[in-house]
């Protein structure tokens, strides 16, 4: 089960008008930083970008899971953005990304980080879940979909 603190309505944006990978990462960084007192947008963006430079976190099927370790937090934090149109993300299948879930974990978290990424990747591998997330127009709906998927 995902922690109830993993994601909140304040860290969800549906149907965002985003035209680039950089802007998508910036938007995710803003959502995370604006909802956490020890974070700022520039720091989160830089950490996500550092990880992205190691290799694209675009999983295919229009999904990206940008993630980073960050010493300024003690808990795992997530943010979700769906875009109105897909953005070029250098995904493994070359398809544009329109669903992105960013994950921040404490610097010391290793196994937890990998397990959570695997669970998120599993959730996003389901075509029905992806379709429902693309149709979602509210943060509450996104959270409900994540909870429902995790309960399966």
Task: Describe the protein.
Residues 5-149 form the PTS EIIA type-2 domain. The chain is α/β, with parallel strands linked by helices and 152 residues long. It has a single domain (9-151), classed as Mannitol-specific EII, Chain A. 42% of the residues lie in helices and 23% in strands. It has five helices and six strands, in the order βααβββββααα. Strands 1, 2, 3, 4, 5 and 6 form a six-stranded mixed β-sheet that branches. Strand 2 (58-60) and strand 3 (63-64) form a beta hairpin. Helix 1 crosses helix 2 (41-54). The longest helix has 14 residues, at 21-34. The protein is globular, with a radius of gyration of 14 Å. The protein starts with 11 loop residues before the first strand and ends with a helix.
Summarize the structure.
Residues 5-149 form the PTS EIIA type-2 domain. Keywords: Sugar transport, Transport. The chain has 152 residues and is of the alpha/beta class.
């Amino acid at each position: 089960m995902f922690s109830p603190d993993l994601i909140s309505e304040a860290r969800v944006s549906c149907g965002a008008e985003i035209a680039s990978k950089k802007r998508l990462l910036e938007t995710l960084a803003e959502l995370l930083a604006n909802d956490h007192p020890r974070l700022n947008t520039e720091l989160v963006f830089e950490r996500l970008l550092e990880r992205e430079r190691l290799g694209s976190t675009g999983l295919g099927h229009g999904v990206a899971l940008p993630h980073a370790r960050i010493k300024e937090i003690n808990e795992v934090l997530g943010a979700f953005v769906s875009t109105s149109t897909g953005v070029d993300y250098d995904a493994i299948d070359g398809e544009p990304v329109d669903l992105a879930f960013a994950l921040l974990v404490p610097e010391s978290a290793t196994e937890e980080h990998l397990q959570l990424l695997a669970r998120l990747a599993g959730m996003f591998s389901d075509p029905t879940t992806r379709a429902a997330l693309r149709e979602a127009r509210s943060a509450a709906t996104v959270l409900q979909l994540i909870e429902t998927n995790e309960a399966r």
